């Protein structure tokens, strides 16, 4: 007995059950459509976002007139147009809001993620574990995609396999020795925050004299070397004087500042003192600071030295005549130095006004879709690239990297959303053992598969989330790590908690952090050692919303790498070996905050936001898919490469596990 | 005919640049321009047709003609998302038109209510690509022949329950480009960094490599003689879905419709009979398609339409934009297993 394509019992299940869709974007729109057409009647959808014009190439439930409105709300209205009997509840909200507690999740037979960030995925993973509800997880980026099923006790959870954390660059690379455009872009974003936004101690832009690579020689030697350099240039005595004075001031300041920052005033305060004068700012960043870097001559023994830019000199240059293109997009043009200097000046002035309008103590937040903010980063990054002898990039390319843009199309999302519903049907039929992880390739693999189903893995017994008594060990310096850092960088960012409560296992049950607002604020600026925490101390960390308890063992360590505040023992996703033929730049990259910056685009899509780590070697088909598995399925696993009995063993690794005999095919 | 010179000269407006931003970043501006100059004919507006329509309209083709002579029935209301409720009795293409147009006002979407069988040969030649869904086998073969003589790209696709396929014929010489990473040697002058001593691969240094692929006709692809020794040898690696397709196309030809749930019992019997006939005629064992297959090939399953429609849509985009290697020449999707296979069928 069939109802449409489905057996009667299944069709009944489908029309009566309640499901939750988390996300109403690329995958979400396609998924909602598939669900109602398949006969699902009771659907709840949640998304905190509003509609943007760049969504319209794939989020087909939205039209231009909806830009600015709630995605969840408009998606619901659109669906009701072709399926008015569907019972849809839309929430314009974050799934991490404590209103959506375990009880809320228990209302549903299953949950389907259509997310684009790891924090939310981690959170929903824990909520579904706590509620013991099946979760269908998925992701797409460019041409690639993936779907998998998570069921407590039966399969791996989303956090069973360590995921590669986003790459951060060492401070000295950003501040002193950039060698790639991405370093300059990260620097420019830091600069934006230092000048106009929230100043962050981890986002310094001025030269770092504490750079271990720099010489430790005395200031006198540096100055002498600099004088010699000046003499070897031909310049007027006025310039000579000015520069000498500048360099001595800088050197003196540097000598007296322990941390190696040459500024004693904050960048923002200094800028304010100049009235945000673009020319002064330009000369400080691209001339004076560069000249200072030049005195750290050890840095330039094996590297090409940066070349300072002087505003007045730049003004003498001609504008570069770009071939007038009807060919490329306007944003794809690469301006010359003078063009970017002008752009820098204009954007500083615009941002200055924006800041003034907001009033005293105002801060701007960087947004790739805010034109002056994007102009500023484009200009500043390019000027720095030029200073450091790199080919400059168009606004289009800078926006990709700075804005962490993941190319996206409708068809990939359509395929993945179709696969999600097929998995959902298996779950509702009670056929969990039929569930699979399915990968979507760009090209068929050697076994001719474009869509590759793989058996699900059992849970990791040592998983720090779904194991019965999860435990981790963290190395840090108890005298230097603040309670605030523990909360924000370790428990929230690293371990994905939303509202942690921390007790020290010291026999007294001392409360270190309370999730109740204000209760433990006084502790935040103290270091851990002040609470008697030392090597071997244990913390019991609870997130009651996620129904999650984690035991944290602490190891005191004084020789962590520079810029590294803590290390999780045993879990070293950063050490995952890079795929063959893949340049460093293609990895996930971050610059401190949630943001990541990405190098170029097209099919070599490294992701961040969409959490699908992909590297497309372009050499052979299908290598990319398997990398796509990394984010969803964890760090690159052992090869189960059934078919390469030797020939072509240099090839891509395959996650594909044969699931029945038909799949094992002998090669010619 | 793809007139490449004309297509590349078009200027992309600010509006298009903003809307197509995320896909231009994937397949490049040239590809987008070619799409923008392309006209496509889509035959059949059931579940699969609606998916393909959506995908092509969102991609930004110049024009899409929706052709379907059938009327909206009560069932078809729930079968696809372009037809609004209350459209019973209207023509399917006509009923789909408004919501299709809303997907992207920059595309010229038209509805044609005539039966495709009645169209003269020249009708097809005004398009750059033709996509046939829900068509009987002989009709597909005929249209494929008309089109491939004039370099009109041909695509076919159908969904039967949990199963679906797509076929493409891009002609004997389909030209396309692939983007490859370039390894940059250290050179004089500005490079991409001060570390000029090391050769590096700059991720944005890519080069376009030109390639060609050849395709056979649909007739040739479907009329393989499996009794030959060579064919038998490759059987082990051949997806059974190919033969399932033959069975379902025969059903469609014989009964003038696809298997329908309201006549499940009778249709199942007929299907099994056709299976026996088809396999026997080719000297193949009947267990190549086990009996249970009948339970899974009725009606169009929405998620299967989404998967096949996604792959098919993307193949059309690739062919029109002449970028990236096309799948050659069949794609089979098995919704029960979740496997999607690309394979080449031709009579050599």
Describe this structure in words.
The complex is a heterodimer of chains A (668) and B (348). The radius of gyration of chain A is 27 Å and the shape is globular. Chain A has 18 helices and 18 strands. Chain A has an 8-stranded mixed β-sheet, sandwiched between helices. In chain A, strand 7 and strand 8 form a beta hairpin. Chain A is α/β, with parallel strands linked by helices and 668 residues long. In chain A, helix 7 packs across helix 14. Chain B is an alpha/beta fold and 348 residues long. In chain B, helix 3 packs across helix 13, helix 4 packs parallel to helix 6 and helix 11 crosses helix 12. In chain B, strand 1, helix 4 and strand 2 form a beta-alpha-beta unit. Chain B starts with a helix and ends in a 5-residue tail after the last strand. Classes of the chains: A alpha/beta (668), B alpha/beta (348). The interface between A and B is large, with 95 and 92 residues. Chain A: It comes from Scleropages formosus. Chain A: This is SUMO-activating enzyme subunit 2. Chain A: One of its GO terms (cellular component) is SUMO activating enzyme complex. Chain A: The heterodimer acts as an E1 ligase for SUMO1, SUMO2, SUMO3, and probably SUMO4. It mediates ATP-dependent activation of SUMO proteins followed by formation of a thioester bond between a SUMO protein and a conserved active site cysteine residue on UBA2/SAE2. Chain A: Its EC number is 2.3.2.-.
